[in-house]
């Protein structure tokens, strides 16, 4: 074993393999997982999906039978939910060994886009008890060909996600060619990683995740150092991020101090009110024209007035808004409510819920209605418009 492996507490491979699927906000983690979910190699896998903010959506959008998917929301895996991940892995093993759940032969963890992957990896390889039951095998990082280079420049989390990977998967290659600049940036961050195309026809789950036991020595010196730093900081609940604002909770909410860049927050909305398609379009237009550059990620499932049982799925990643998809039927586990998560920079708290309510006609004292909003977007507190 190498010195860096020893320093990081890395242990000999044993136990159930755990793969980590990471990548920045909207890079294409869930899309990739959906593409591979029917692969027989994953048929007896347990999937753990973590989401930023307190409104989970990905678990609704992963096309699985449902009983193999565990959602960890209400915080970020690398911050407050880390203890929950340890408990979940311990509980899974316990339930399998006592015959309460069908046996699983591997675990795949999808992190939030803002997650620093190092604490997540440490939960598996650095934890005294879990290290007996699980082994880390296959860290896969999705990098988006459209926004990837700018994202690597702007966000330390994205650079760490790329640096720790065994495999780098470039997504959205059909929308933009991953140019030489991005390839060389990835190679400089992680010279030994395999680079794959998310849209390649022959991509398989085994080809992606089965890269052998994780070896820190195969990565840059930084990776071994981060792994050992994280394990020692963990004892004092320290964290390598900025410690800034809370996300998605009232001030004083004690357990989700979901801290990353102090300007980034998750705004979430849950509404039982159905919305007319044209009002939704106006809501999105207004939001994007006024706040487009600050909208890092939006995803949601929307209850539409014309047929509330067939929701609309929305995705935007920075300036790129995907074509909304009308689902043919309600997804398993959906409670029929609109759920929107927006990860934004410098957006006032409560803004999205207020704006949406104005367009869906939800009554509220002193709330501007649709006409007032369209005539004067500044009617929403904190709203800035370019019109
Ligand atoms: N054309 C194309 N679109 C993609 C690809 N991967 C993802 N997308 C689109 O990008 C958007 C975001 O994809 P997701 O898979 O939800 O991204 P994610 O990384 O799981 O997002 P978060 O969990 O919110 O960080 C969706 O609109 C996808 O349809 C790809 O390889 N090609």
UniProtKB/TrEMBL annotation:
<dbReference type="GO" id="GO:0000166">
    <property type="term" value="F:nucleotide binding"/>
</dbReference>
<dbReference type="Pfam" id="PF02492">
    <property type="entry name" value="cobW"/>
</dbReference>
<feature type="region of interest" description="Disordered">
    <location>
        <begin position="230"/>
        <end position="257"/>
    </location>
</feature>
<dbReference type="InterPro" id="IPR011629">
    <property type="entry name" value="CobW-like_C"/>
</dbReference>
<keyword id="KW-0143">Chaperone</keyword>
<comment type="similarity">
    <text>Belongs to the SIMIBI class G3E GTPase family. ZNG1 subfamily.</text>
</comment>
<dbReference type="Pfam" id="PF07683">
    <property type="entry name" value="CobW_C"/>
</dbReference>
<dbReference type="GO" id="GO:0016787">
    <property type="term" value="F:hydrolase activity"/>
</dbReference>
<keyword id="KW-0547">Nucleotide-binding</keyword>
<dbReference type="InterPro" id="IPR003495">
    <property type="entry name" value="CobW/HypB/UreG_nucleotide-bd"/>
</dbReference>
<dbReference type="InterPro" id="IPR027417">
    <property type="entry name" value="P-loop_NTPase"/>
</dbReference>
<dbReference type="InterPro" id="IPR051316">
    <property type="entry name" value="Zinc-reg_GTPase_activator"/>
</dbReference>
<feature type="domain" description="CobW C-terminal">
    <location>
        <begin position="264"/>
        <end position="360"/>
    </location>
</feature>
<comment type="function">
    <text>Zinc chaperone that directly transfers zinc cofactor to target proteins, thereby activating them. Zinc is transferred from the CXCC motif in the GTPase domain to the zinc binding site in target proteins in a process requiring GTP hydrolysis.</text>
</comment>
<dbReference type="InterPro" id="IPR036627">
    <property type="entry name" value="CobW-likC_sf"/>
</dbReference>
<protein>
    <submittedName>
        <fullName>Putative GTPase (G3E family)</fullName>
    </submittedName>
</protein>
<keyword id="KW-0378">Hydrolase</keyword>
<feature type="compositionally biased region" description="Basic and acidic residues">
    <location>
        <begin position="231"/>
        <end position="257"/>
    </location>
</feature>
